[in-house]
What we know:
Layout: H1 2-31, H2 39-61, H3 73-102, H4 106-126
Helix pairs in contact: 1-2, 1-4, 2-3, 3-4
The chain binds protoporphyrin IX containing FE (HEM).
Amino acid sequence: MNILVRAHSGLRYVVLALLIAAIFAAYSNWQNGKRKDAKVYLFAMIATHTQLLIGLILYVMSPKVDFKMISEKIYRFYSIEHIFMMLIAIVLITLGRIRSKKLDGPDKHRTVLYFYALALIIILVAIPWPFRELGASWF
Length: 139
Ligand code: HEM
């Protein structure tokens, strides 16, 4: 359980780095009229899906997920807010990639740019950063 929490916690930086790299790549490919997919779009999606997988296991096992304690901030965050926002973000990333696959020309990269950028904002809001006092650390 502890190993899973540490992996899930550390992987956040991989997710953030890959999403930012994908967003920059999408912008530059859009502006430069590139036709081909960038590999980083796929890697960013794989990283978020890995978080989803670990997150689902944690959701079942974690003592911080408890609907009887929902009136308390920390339990409410992990039981509802964290999973809800992360699921929306992961759906956006997946949809963005699937849509972009079907498109050609500048639309392809612009689709990745918009979907991934929106997902990145949601993920940044949904991460239990230490300053939010949700019982989580930086790593
Ligand atoms: C991109 C997606 C995600 C990111 C970046 C992320 C990030 C994090 C971070 C940083 C923590 C705090 C770890 C710590 O204590 O230091 C955390 C905890 C947690 N996450 Fe996620 N998460 C993501 C998706 C999900 C999803 C989809 C679920 C559920 C299906 C989930 C379930 C949990 C649970 C249950 C905890 C609390 C674990 C515990 O301390 O007992 N996460 N997450």
